[in-house]
Amino acid sequence: MYDQVAQNRRRSMVLIAGFFLFTALTAIAVSFGLGFGTPGIIIAVLIAASAAIMGYWKSDRVALAVSRAYPADETTFARYHNVVEGLCIASGLPKPRLYIVHDVAPNAFATGRNPKHGAVAVTTGLLETMNRVELEGVLAHELSHIKNYDILVSTLAVVMVGVVTLVADISLRFSLLSGSRRRKAEDSMGLVLVVVGLLLAIIGPIIAKLMQMAITRRRESLADLSAVQMTRYPPGLISALQKLEAEPTVVRSGSRATAHMWIEDPMAQTPSEGRMSRLNRMFNTHPPIAERIAALREL
User: Fold this and answer.
1) Checking CA distances to 298, which of 49, 196, 229, 248 falls within 20 to 30 Å?
2) How far apart are the C-alpha atoms of 43 and 12, rounded to whole Å?
3) Do residue 146 and residue 170 come from a single domain?
4) Which helix (DSSP H) or strand (DSSP E) does residue 99 occupy?
5) What tens digit of pLDDT does each residue of 99-142 get?
6) Which domain holds residue 232?
7) Which of 142, 220, 247, 273 is catalytic?
8) 112 and 53 in contact (C-beta within 8 Å)?
9) Based on the domain organization, do 229 and 267 belong to the same domain?
10) Are residues 119 and 134 in the same domain?
C-alpha cells in the first residue's frame, strides 16, 4: 500500500511533465504553421506552463465546478460533517472541505492536490440512501483516495483532458481555416498545418484517454481496502456498494472527463439508465462493483 502511494506521487509528476510537453509541442506546431515564428514559440511555451500550473493549483476547483458542487452547510448536513470528522480523527487526516452535489443519484468523489488541500463531495441522493454505517464506508473510501494521494492524479486529469481536447480542436479549426484561405499548391506550410491539425484532432482524444488511464482501476480497489482498514467494518462498504449497484439513476452533472473520480461510474451503463451506455462501458474507468464486493468479502 505504501509503495502504491509513492507510485501515485511519481505518476503525478510524470503526468504534469507529459501534459506540459504535449501542450507546448502542439502550440509550437500551430504557431509555425501560422507563421508566428519565435514570438509564437515563446507564447506557446508560456501557454503550456500556465496550463500546467493551473492544472496543479486550480484543478480541484474546476472539478467541483464541473460537478456543480457547493459547500456543505454544517447545520443542514450535520451527519455528513460528523462522520467525516470521526474518520479523520481515527485515520490522522486533516478534515477536507465538504461539498454537496444536488442530485438524486447516490455517488461521491474526492478531489484536491494533497491531504491538506483535499475536498469530498457527495450527492444528496447518497445522503438520503445510505444509513450511517454505509455512509461511513463510502466516506472512508473517499478519504482513502486523499490519504493515498490518488486525488492529485485524478484531479489533474480533469483539467488535462479538457485542455488537450481543446488544443486539438483549435488546431483543427486553424488548419481548416488556413487550408480554405490558401489555395496555392506550393504553399507547403499551409499543407503542413492541415496535416498537423488533422493528426492532433485524431490523437488528441486518444492522448486524453491515456491520461485518464493513468487513473488505474487498481486505485479503486486499493481505496476499498483502505476504507475497510479505516472503519474496521467491511459489511458497511459492501452494503453501500450493493445499493450503488442496484440504483439505476445516473448523476446529471457527470461527464467522461470526471467519471474516474466518482466511487461509481456516473455515466449510464445500461440502456435503461440512458443513451450511449455501450460507449460508456467501453471507456469505463472502474472495475465492476460485483468484483469489488467479492474482494471485500474475502477480507
Assistant:
1) 248
2) 25
3) no
4) strand 97-101
5) 999 999 999 999 998 899 999 999 999 999 999 999 999 999 99
6) 67-151+217-297
7) 142
8) no
9) yes
10) yes
